[in-house]
């Protein structure tokens, strides 16, 4: 089952990371590293259309077109305007091209079916306010949308929206059209935070919201409690009158498995919940079985958002507990967790689980700034590769103390040698975005191969039914899906 390492996602030029030329060595290229295909670990994972052969992106376009052609667009008239709403995280999935192709196909099909030409792309961001501007140019979306593609940030002009719970604030540029199309993805991303509750609705309280409303997730209400703000915004009379349909890139931990478009967002949400719980739940549960390891960050994203097997590093930091079990009042495992820690840097309550003890050390070979990440270097011994990368983090207002808790090595080789000697383990998991599988050390591969069968059975027979019941997902939807519960 072990193969040569999968090529990591290549470094990308960005104001949020070091110059790609400074990334001299990828950890996957080093001795004793192998890859595991997720389909080999879990045979019942559905087939993917991307990654694939030379025509993989064409397969994504075809799936998008077929899905969109079955959606009711009769409400859109030729003289109307349409905003296609997107989120920055989609561009970090599988190299970014599949999500970009979905966004391009949405415009193409809307023009074809309705005759409407005034179609704009509005791509939201989090704390890196210029990030989507880079993606728009990188993937040619500015040209495809005829110059009508812009990034929108939570500090842009707001718009009051009356909801069932009072006035909340969206972004004016998100809603300055007759109709909106919600384009997102089933990647679970911050399941440690939203806990796979209303995942499909979340961008209405995040990517399309002003910072005063968006911050309910981060500063005010915290984990899970803020989920209802997104639902309140989406269900408001103002948004409902503009909502045309949703189109999601269906993503599993091993790749793109299709496109799901529907006029009913909650139907999409149920299907996204199933994918998130069954497919990603298996990887998350398997990661929770890891007893010790060195975690390597080697991906063009901020520290908590680097990927391994479709799971971000922040999720792995909480994989020592069941992040899907809603009976457990878990806190968030990102920097918000500081709210649950006292001045002694320990959880305030005994019931609050600490950082995943399996992570003995973190090797920061390549990751971006732009997200408050001091919490990670403070609680996990961290070694950063290269003075340039360390200096970059020292200049970031969100990370001025990140390097106060980390050490620096000149080269990747030196950093890994330091980690092996200090952590006293040769088990390594690499968060480098390897598509279709994961890159790990041979010793960890052997461990995961042994654990996978029992994890597969436990999720299918015990955990998945519980997770879906907790979220009120009607199990009859399994009849509509290809991703059937065995």
Number of strands: 18
Strand residue percentage: 15-25%
Per DSSP, the total helix count is 16
Major sheet description: 8 strands, mixed
Helix content: 25-40%
Shape category: globular
Q: Any idea what the radius of gyration is?
A: 21 Å
Number of domains: 2
Mean pLDDT across residues:
92
Lateral arrangement of strands in the main beta sheet: 1-2-18-17-11-14-15-16
The chain-level structural class is: alpha/beta
Distance between the termini: 23 Å
Report the uncertain regions.
332-336, 482-486
Short account of what is shown:
This protein has 486 residues and is an alpha/beta fold. The protein contains 16 helices and 18 strands. The protein has two domains: 215 residues, no CATH class; 197 residues, 3-Layer(aba) Sandwich (Rossmann fold).
SSE topology:
Blueprint: E1 2-3, E2 33-37, H1 38-41, H2 56-69, E3 81-87, H3 97-114, E4 118-124, H4 131-138, H5 141-144, E5 149-152, E6 158-163, E7 166-171, E8 179-185, H6 191-194, H7 211-214, H8 216-220, H9 227-234, H10 237-242, E9 243-252, E10 255-262, H11 265-288, E11 293-302, E12 307-308, E13 311-312, H12 313-316, E14 359-368, H13 374-379, E15 382-385, H14 387-394, E16 406-409, H15 412-423, E17 428-431, E18 437-441, H16 442-470
Parallel strand pairs: 3-4, 3-8, 4-5, 8-9, 11-14, 11-17, 14-15, 15-16
Antiparallel strand pairs: 1-2, 2-18, 6-7, 9-10, 12-13, 17-18
Helix pairs in contact: 2-3, 11-16
């Amino acid at each position: 089952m072990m193969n040569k390492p999968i090529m990591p996602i290549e470094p990308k030029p960005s104001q949020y990371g070091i110059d790609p030329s400074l990334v001299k060595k990828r950890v996957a290229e080093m001795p004793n590293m192998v890859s595991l295909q997720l389909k080999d670990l879990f045979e019942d994972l559905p087939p993917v259309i991307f990654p694939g052969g030379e025509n993989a992106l064409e397969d994504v376009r075809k799936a998008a077109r077929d899905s969109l052609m079955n959606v009711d667009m009769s409400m859109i008239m030729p003289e109307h305007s349409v905003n296609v709403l997107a989120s920055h995280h989609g561009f970090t999935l599988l190299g970014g091209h599949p999500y970009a192709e979905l966004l391009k196909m949405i415009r193409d099909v809307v023009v074809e079916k309705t005759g409407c030409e005034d179609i704009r792309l509005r791509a939201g961001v989090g704390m890196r306010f210029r990030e989507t501007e880079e993606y728009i140019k990188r993937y040619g979306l500015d040209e495809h949308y005829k110059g009508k593609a812009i990034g929108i940030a939570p500090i842009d002009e707001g718009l009051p929206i009356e909801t069932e719970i009072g006035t909340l604030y969206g972004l004016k540029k998100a809603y300055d059209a007759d109709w909106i199309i919600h384009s997102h993805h089933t990647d679970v991303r911050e399941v440690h935070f939203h806990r796979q509750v209303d995942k499909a609705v979340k961008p209405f309280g995040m990517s399309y919201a002003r910072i005063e409303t968006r911050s309910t997730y981060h500063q005010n209400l915290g984990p899970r409690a803020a989920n209802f703000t997104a639902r309140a915004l989406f269900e408001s009379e103002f948004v409902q009158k503009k909502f045309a349909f949703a189109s999601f890139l269906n993503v599993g931990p091993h790749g793109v498995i299709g496109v799901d478009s529907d006029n009913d967002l909650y139907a999409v949400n149920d299907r996204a919940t199933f994918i998130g719980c069954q497919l990603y739940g298996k990887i998350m549960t398997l990661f929770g079985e890891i007893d010790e390891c060195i975690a390597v960050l080697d991906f063009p994203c901020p520290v908590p958002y680097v990927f391994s097997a479709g799971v971000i590093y922040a999720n792995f930091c909480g994989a020592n507990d069941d992040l899907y079990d809603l009976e457990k009042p878990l806190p968030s495992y990102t920097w918000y967790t500081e709210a649950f820690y006292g001045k002694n840097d320990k959880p305030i309550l005994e019931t609050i689980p600490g950082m995943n003890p399996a992570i003995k050390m973190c090797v920061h070979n390549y990751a971006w700034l732009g997200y408050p990440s001091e919490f990670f270097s403070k609680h996990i011994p961290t070694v950063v590769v290269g003075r340039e990368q360390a200096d970059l983090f020292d200049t970031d207002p969100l990370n001025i103390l990140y390097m106060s808790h980390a050490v620096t090595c000149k080269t990747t080789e030196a950093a890994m040698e330091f980690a092996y000697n200090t952590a006293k383990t040769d088990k390594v998991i690499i968060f480098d975005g390897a598509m279709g599988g994961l890159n790990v050390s041979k010793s960890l591969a052997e461990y995961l191969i042994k654990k996978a069968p029992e994890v597969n059975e436990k999720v299918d027979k015990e955990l998945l039914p519980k997770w879906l019941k907790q979220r009120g997902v009607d199990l009859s939807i399994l009849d509509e899906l290809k991703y059937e519960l065995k």
